[in-house]
Write a structure and sequence with these properties.
The chain is built from 12 helices and 13 strands.
């Protein structure tokens, strides 16, 4: 092959070490031609040659400014004029080379000036990292928290991939912050004492390993998106990406056209705010449009071969029903799909099917369904219970949740918080209950509300969540078991 790709890392703290590395690669017949994201090195094949490399820091971009193409070419022309050949650049680091031992003017002769440039670049990078880390921590809390506790997190591969990606990104950021702060601390003192700039490569292999994990996660993420889009025809997932794409496009336009413009910083700040507002409005508008598109999608789904319930399964006549079938996959649950069958004046019947890798994971999924049902009961009843205990008036509505008037009378004289807590325990105990009568005769069966209109079933590695019928009715149980192949 005439090219070579290498996972490495170059930054302001280690570039002299990378210069030596490029010299070794040139001696083996590989000349650096491009650096992507500071860590993917692309080489082109050359005749083995002894070369000297020099990496020169030159700030290309700040939060509001960016060097134009002409300005960069002017800088490169000056370097080439004194005998250096331009190879490539990585952000603010520009790579040059020359024939070994040839007499040329060094690119940097004043170490204090060089450090001032490096310090400016480092401060810019640190500001960006300090801004990004809280956002990633918030994202980690939202995504990983969901993944650890919810049914969705266990069934959704995208959530699991992102849950792996975020910690790797955070580790990279923390390493980078430590590296930059240490570099600045040591070299501020060195410059004051008249010493040279001290570089290091202490985190080199940590960076390499982290970047490998990061890119593997990105590749898996992209493969998942393509598979979901092509095989599952997952329109919802594709639509969810549109706001991100809008942000990338609008941000790129600002970077290309506004940053290099010869206008004041104040003007660029105003434009940036306008760009952010525009991107937000477009994203919200797109989201509303997407919801409208999905809501207008009406018609039967092809459910042959899927173990799901339809309204027609419980009717003697053929009913014109509609349905949404949504397929998913994850590392823990390779096969899962959800189906909602609905018809006018007849309501909705929900089916969620999952086949886990192991029975242990299937049991875990059942427990998650139970926890989510418990959380729904707490969220649905807490405020209303506070109201009725505060006013001392029972509402017969709560009989449908499992709280009788006798229960209310026995609790109303207690402290309000204690009464609400005890009432919630009664509701949970009477709502989320095991099929002790053996009506279903499966490995695990739990009703998830008092009316028995929601239920979770497990047989081996398979888990079903069903909603919309009275699943304590023996006749309905028989139809469901026959339709889902649970006999």
């Amino acid at each position: 092959m005439n090219f070579k790709i290498e996972n490495s890392y170059v930054n302001i703290t280690n570039y002299p070490y990378i210069e030596r590395h490029f010299e070794k690669m040139a001696a083996r017949g590989w000349l650096i031609s491009k650096i992507i994201s500071g860590n993917l090195f692309l080489y082109k094949r050359i005749e083995p040659e002894e070369l000297d490399f020099s990496i020169s820091p030159y700030e290309v971009e700040t939060a509001y400014t960016r060097k134009t193409k002409e300005e960069l070419e002017e800088f490169q022309t000056v370097c080439e004029y004194v005998g250096w050949n331009f190879a490539t650049k990585s952000y603010d680091l520009h790579v040059y080379y020359k024939e070994k031992d040839s007499e040329v003017v060094p690119l940097h002769t004043d170490e204090e000036e060089e450090f001032n440039i490096l310090e400016k670049i480092a401060k810019k990078q640190l500001k960006a990292l300090y801004f990004q880390i809280p956002l990633f921590i918030l994202l980690a809390w939202m995504v990983i928290g969901r993944s650890l506790a919810s049914v969705y997190g266990m069934k959704d591969g995208l959530t699991q991939i992102v849950s792996l990606l975020i910690p790797v990104a955070l580790i990279l950021m923390v390493i980078n912050i430590y590296d930059l702060r240490k570099f600045l601390k040591i070299n501020r003192k060195n410059i004051e004492l008249g010493k040279g700039i001290e570089f290091n490569d202490w985190g080199f292999y940590g960076y390499k390993i982290s970047f490998i994990l990061f890119y593997i996660s990105i590749l898996v993420f992209l493969a998942y998106l393509l598979y979901s889009a092509i095989v599952f025809k997952n329109i919802i997932l594709l639509m969810a990406l549109i706001p991100s794409l809008i942000g990338i496009v609008v941000g790129s336009l600002y970077r290309i056209y506004v940053k290099p413009a010869k206008r004041s910083i104040g003007y660029k700040k105003v434009v940036l705010v306008a760009v952010l507002i525009t991107a937000t409005i477009l994203s919200i508008g797109t989201g509303i449009f997407n919801i409208g598109v999905l809501a207008s999608k009406d018609g039967p789904s092809k459910i042959e071969g899927y173990r799901v319930l339809s309204i027609n399964d419980f009717s003697d006549e053929t009913i014109e029903d509609s349905g949404d079938l949504r397929r998913n996959l994850s590392f823990l649950i390779p096969v899962s799909y959800d189906y909602s069958s609905y018809a006018r004046r007849l309501g909705v019947i929900d089916t969620e099917y999952s086949r886990a890798l192991t029975e242990g994971l299937a049991r875990n999924l059942v427990n998650r369904y139970k926890r989510e049902a418990e959380n729904r009961l707490i969220g649905r009843n807490s405020k209303d219970l506070e109201f009725i205990f505060e006013n001392g008036v029972y509402d017969s509505y709560y009989a449908r949740s499992g709280l009788t008037e006798d229960d209310f009378i026995s609790l109303r004289d207690r402290d309000k918080k204690e009464a609400v807590k005890e009432a919630l325990e009664i509701i949970k105990e009477r709502s989320i209950r095991e099929d002790l009568d053996g009506l279903w005769d499966l490995d695990e069966v739990y009703f998830l509300n008092y009316e028995s209109s929601e239920i979770v079933l497990r047989i081996g590695k398979e888990v079903f969540f069903l909603g919309g019928l009275d699943f304590s009715d023996p006749e309905i149980v028989g139809v469901v078991k026959d339709r889902l192949g649970l006999d």
